[in-house]
Amino acid sequence: MKEITFEQIKSCEEINMYIEKGDSVLGVMGFTEHSRAHGMKVAITAGIILKQLGYSEHTIKIAKITGYMHDIGNCVNRNDHAHSGAILTFQILKSLEMNPEDIATIVAAIGNHDEKTGTAVDAVSAAVILADKTDVRRNRVRNQVKSSFDIHDRVNYAAVSSKLNINLENKTIHLEIKLDDKMCSVMDYFEIFLQRMLMCKRAAEILDLKFKLTANGSKVC
């Protein structure tokens, strides 16, 4: 078995091709950006979460690899992309001769990252879910014609800024979002992302934390 690094994964031509194809497919369908930039943001944020909580460098590396590859299944189809992505990831990492235990952890996290069918099952999956579901920002919206925005476009575009902070003393992980209330209300946000926020709550519990959400200074949960 080989020790595979995060740098090897993010520079792998095959992996990057599948991620970019998936992003292209979603672009045709009008979904928000799911490119390598999103993968990198999720990877970095997941790594930061686990580092702040004192996890090992190896676990942090596995979380970063998972975060980078988590949306690779979109190159197959948006529907059930978590499961197809897990299978695709298994084949790639097996061909790279990665340790089977690490492959199993990564595949389980990718297969469980979608709120429709999954849930946090361990520290790696929990960190990736929190990093993924809190990546809400207006530059992920592809549609530039505001008059044609649907509710998902409006909510994502309305997110002027977002910060995810961990308070070790209070054992909380806190998402603070600033919304342009001319684009959408806090209630609009909560309506669209309720399932995701509940998933974040479960993920935080796996990490022995409480999930908190504040939008425009108002406590949502």
Identify the notable features of this structure and list them briefly.
Hypothetical protein af1432, 9 helices, 4 strands, globular
Quick one: CATH class?
Answer: Mainly Alpha
| Estimated share of beta-strand residues | 5-15%
Radius of gyration, whole Å: 17 Å
Count of individual beta strands:
4
What overall geometry do the principal axes of the alpha carbons give? globular
Low-confidence stretches: none
CATH architecture: Orthogonal Bundle
Q: What is the topology, as strand order, of the major beta sheet?
A: 1-2-3-4
| Strand-pairing-aware structural class | alpha+beta
Overall description:
This protein is an alpha+beta fold. The chain has a single domain, classed as Orthogonal Bundle (Hypothetical protein af1432). It is built from 9 helices and 4 strands. A 4-stranded mixed beta sheet has the order 1-2-3-4. Strand 3 and strand 4 (218-219) form a beta hairpin. The longest helix has 21 residues, at 186-206. It starts with 5 loop residues before the first helix and ends with a strand.
